[in-house]
Amino acid sequence: MTNAHQTHDETDAEADEPTTDHLDDVEDGCGCTEIWEHMSETREAAADDD
Question: Where is there biased composition of kind Basic and acidic residues (predicted)?
């Protein structure tokens, strides 16, 4: 039996990471409620712009 050595290309790994730019205005360490409120306010603002 042989051991297969896998390597990961960083660009492939980065492509698999979800984007988090929609949370840039949220403080590090905040909880679920703060994130939910931030996202809700963002959606409301976007709806008002329509």
Answer: 1-10
Query: What span, in angstroms and rounded, lies between the C-alpha atoms of 24 and 28?
Result: 9
| pLDDT tens column, 7-49 | 555 566 667 888 888 888 888 999 999 999 999 998 999 998 8
pTM recorded for the entire structure: 0.52
Exposure string for 3-28, b = 16+ CB within 10 A, e = fewer: eeeeeeeeeeeeeeeeeeeeeeeeee
Nearest to 35 by CA among 46, 20, 48: 20
**Is the backbone of residue 34 left (phi > 0), alpha (psi -120 to 50) or beta?**
alpha
